[in-house]
Amino acid sequence: MISREDDVLAAAEAWREAGRGVAVATVVETWGSAPRPVGSHLVIDADGDFLGSVSGGCVEGAVVEEAGEVIATGAPRMLEFGVADETAWRVGLSCGGRIRVYVERLD
Domain residues for 96? Predict the structure, then answer.
């Protein structure tokens, strides 16, 4: 059986093969009420199009912004969002919890 995560990663590979700049964001750690489990993926292209989810909508916008820089520079980033973080209210994690997301360019 093919999972939704497999579909997202297959789309990332198809975008890359089509010559689009692509980044993959992966949930690497959660604590509290994070809505997506470790291993969840969000794939983003250089135009800001994306598929998948790392937080059910709470931090996707911020991750897409960071992914643009990762695609441009090739330098991966570890992002952390949570209620103790100054970005918590901006990205909507007011329900509690913390999430760490690793973003890397797909070459």
Answer: 4-106
pLDDT band at 2 (very low <50, low <70, confident <90, very high): very low
State the Cα–Cα distance between residues 88 and 98, nearest whole angstrom: 9
- Which pTM value belongs to this model? 0.83
SS3 46: coil
- Please indicate whether residue 92 or residue 78 has the higher confidence score (pLDDT): 78
Cite the beta strand spans of 1-107 per DSSP E. Answer: 22-31, 41-45, 50-52, 77-82, 98-106
Q: Are 31 and 103 in contact (CB under 8 A)?
A: no
DSSP state, residue 86: T
Reported as half-sphere exposure (CB side, CA atoms, 13 A), residue 59 has a value of 32
Cα–Cα dist 26/102, whole Å = 5
Measured over all CA atoms, what is the biggest interatomic distance in the chain, rounded to whole angstroms?
Answer: 41
Q: Is 40 helix (H, G, I), strand (E, B) or coil?
A: coil
Question: Is the pLDDT at 5 greater than 80, yes or no?
Answer: no
Contact 54, 36 (CB under 8 A): yes
